[in-house]
Design brief:
The complex is a heterodimer of chains A (351) and B (331). Chain A is mainly α and 351 residues long. Chain A is 73% helix and 0% strand. In chain B, helix 2 crosses helix 13, helix 4 packs across helix 7 and helix 4 packs across helix 10. The chains are: A mainly alpha (351), B mainly alpha (331).
Chain lengths: 351, 331
């Protein structure tokens, strides 16, 4: 009597995959893309999207065949789902890389040092890239973001403190309105500031008007993240402080805020990252300028997003090259803010 | 004897007399909590007030007419010789059409990505990949505007031509004029890539809430990956997925500069369904396009358009947050 056994995986006896199964999997999942490439090179199908579609169809078929006739049988729906999930990853990653890569390749191609250290007052319609620059836009963005932060960070943290400390009857409504506020379209925030402050003559087109418009967009981000952070402060700490006779004001100032400190910084940075690239509200409030203006209270002010927008409207070859460079600077700023926030998050144990 | 046993501790309500400082402090916090409400009310009030001249003159027709003509900027009652007409139906419908296209693409894509993160890609790469998605979600919209115009459109034209050639018999892919550069389809593609990360992040959070017991039980009953996803994960998180899609919808409705360069605005007729045609509408783009050279009455019309946009996005977002929260609360 002979007992035939398939050679089981010796290191994981419970794992039913044997070498035949693994070789079949390998053959299908590596072979199909190669087959698709072959088909594309032999037929009239062209382009990356043609290759992708060919691969998708072929892999759905080969996956189904493997499921039906392979070493281990499973449903065709199962294999199709896996292929479609991989396809969704490929589409997203390709699209995302096609956004990120040109920003850096075209941005670096346009680089010359004057772009960082001059404003655009000397730029004529067809000036070469070695005249003028985006200093005015960088300074403008910095000032506008600074003022927007000064306005919205305190209010955002206050709103979060209301939810976590006062815990009054209004809590669900406060949460709801903060969420609703995070959905306000950016252009509407711009219109609001234009109607409320600029038309009524309280403020001119200026950096401060832009900052107020952006603070409307920033506040909900700060408030929601700050709320998550403050909820992480253990209630025991609050009770202990109250039991020692502290007033609520002292509890918040001496216990809650210090222990949530790094998280609140994260909340603020995420808020800043959210608004640094906002364009539409600034077009209606800060309005844009070609010269360096460091006074946020008067005169229109430029910012990187406005600069990119107007350069695109101009549309000349050098204008667009400058726009790509400004895009790269903007992306680096947002990336740095984002990286800092994530670094602080990973250290504070916040989810 | 028994009397000593009756002295069990019972919970007592403690009334705290707050100090004056504390009451002021709580007042400040309550004010902070109400700021968002005040801002929302302020936005509504100021927009309504500024939109009043146009809304009074044109009434509800402002939302159902198709035209945008500034004329001499005077109302007929003010003795206008060249009366202006404003109607934003093409823009309103355009915004909604673009948002539907983008969600139609981003929803399957986002759910696919979320499922991949949870069930497909190696655990070691999950952290890096979610970081990547978060980063894409943080890309400013103006960058997408630049990308859409210079990178996407050259490819998108080919796709649109192909769709029109092969599937032109389906009404939505038919065109009256074969120009594909600035169509609702193009704008929808740009927005789809913008909101896919949002949908993916929200759905992934919801998937993470599916009780592991349910999944283990399904596995023990012999469920495959597909049947577990179909019968356990998706039904459990349906509300959250719809909520994520609505969040994306709200973002897509209000987006301005990413759409501005890839959409031809057409004011005189509603493009109901021809998504490949170079004529569409977007309320936000309308505001940016007309703001610079608008007279007083036209500005008022722009405010009315902004008010409509504000109300629509508010409704979409309110529905979204209700769905997401109720789905989270099910845990």
């Amino acid at each position: 009597m002979t007992i035939t056994t398939t050679k089981a995986n010796s290191r994981k006896p419970w794992d039913a995959t044997d070498s035949v199964y693994r070789n079949q999997q390998l053959l299908v999942h590596v072979g199909t893309p190669l087959l698709a490439a072959l088909v594309v090179s032999l037929t009239g199908i062209r382009g990356g999207s043609g290759l992708f579609c060919t691969w998708l169809v072929l892999h759905l078929i080969t996956g189904a065949l493997l499921a039906k006739f392979g070493r281990r049988k499973y449903s065709i729906a199962n294999s199709s789902m896996q292929v479609l999930l991989v396809a969704s990853l490929i589409i997203f990653v390709t699209a995302a890389m096609s956004v990120l890569l040109p920003v850096f390749t075209k941005g670096i191609a346009a680089f010359s040092s004057n772009l960082l250290f001059q404003d655009a007052s000397t730029v004529e319609p067809d000036s070469v890239l070695t005249t003028g620059g985006i200093l005015h836009a960088i300074v403008g963005t910095a000032i506008i973001v600074l003022f927007a932060s000064i306005i919205s960070i305190p209010f955002g943290i206050l709103a979060a403190l209301y939810v976590t400390e006062v815990r009054g009857r209004l809590t669900p409504y406060v949460r709801f309105f903060v969420q609703a506020m995070s959905g306000v379209p950016s252009i509407v925030a711009g219109l609001f500031v234009y109607a409320a402050l600029i038309v009524s003559g309280i403020l001119p087109f200026s950096g401060l008007s832009g900052a107020i418009a952006l603070s409307i967009l920033m506040l909900p981000t700060v408030a929601r993240t700050a709320e998550e952070v403050l909820l992480l402060v253990p209630d025991d700490l609050r009770s202990a402080a109250l039991a020692l006779g502290a007033t609520q004001r002292k509890v918040v100032r001496m216990v809650v805020l210090p222990s949530a400190g790094p998280g609140l910084v994260t909340a603020s940075i995420l808020g800043i990252a959210r608004i640094t690239g906002e364009t539409a509200p600034l077009l209606l409030t800060a309005f844009g300028a070609t010269t360096l203006n460091a006074n946020p209270f008067n005169e229109p002010m430029s910012a990187l997003p406005i600069y990119i927008f107007t350069q695109m409207l101009l549309g000349g070859e050098n204008d667009v090259a400058r726009a790509w460079f400004a895009c790269m600077v903007l992306m680096i700023m947002v990336g740095l803010l984002f990286g800092t926030a994530r670094f602080l998050v990973s250290r504070s144990g916040l989810k | 004897m028994t009397s000593t046993l009756e002295l069990e501790p019972t919970p007592q309500a403690i009334t705290v007399l707050r100090t004056k400082g504390d009451r002021i402090f709580r007042g400040i916090l309550i004010f902070g909590g109400l700021v968002s409400f005040l801002v929302l009310a302020g936005i509504f009030g100021y927009l309504a007030q500024s939109a009043a001249p146009v809304l009074q003159a044109f009434g509800f027709q402002f939302f159902t007419d198709s035209s945008w003509y500034a004329g001499d900027g005077l109302l007929p009652s003010e003795g206008s010789i060249d009366p202006p007409t404003f109607g934003i139906l093409p823009m309103l419908w355009g915004s909604i059409l673009i948002a539907i296209i983008s969600v139609g693409i981003a929803l399957p894509l986002g759910v696919g990505i979320a499922l991949s993160i949870v069930y497909l890609i190696p655990k070691r790469t999950v952290f890096g990949f979610t970081l990547f998605i978060d980063l894409i979600a943080a890309i400013p919209s103006i960058v997408f505007g630049l990308w859409g115009f210079f990178v996407l459109v050259p490819h998108g034209i080919l796709w649109a031509e192909w769709l029109n050639e092969k599937l032109g018999f389906i009404p939505i892919f038919s065109v009256q004029f074969p120009a594909f550069e600035q169509s609702p389809f193009m704008a929808g593609l740009v927005l789809a890539i913008m909101i896919t990360p949002i949908v993916a992040v929200v759905t992934r959070q919801i998937f993470a809430l599916v009780p592991p017991d349910l999944i283990n039980a399904a596995q023990a009953l012999g469920g495959s990956r597909w049947t577990i996803i179909r019968d356990v994960v998706l039904p459990f998180s349906r509300g959250g997925i719809i909520g994520g899609a609505m969040l994306g919808l709200g973002r897509a409705l209000g987006e301005t500069v990413a759409v501005f360069f890839v959409l031809q605005l057409f004011f005189d007729e509603v493009n109901w369904y021809r998504i490949l045609e170079s004529s569409g509408g977007s309320v936000a783009s309308l505001i940016i396009a007309k703001f610079g050279e608008a007279g007083a009455l036209e500005i008022s019309a722009l405010f009315a358009a902004g008010l409509a946009l504000f109300v629509i996005t508010l409704l979409a977002n309110a529905a979204a947050s209700l769905l997401v929260n109720s789905s989270k609360a099910k845990k």
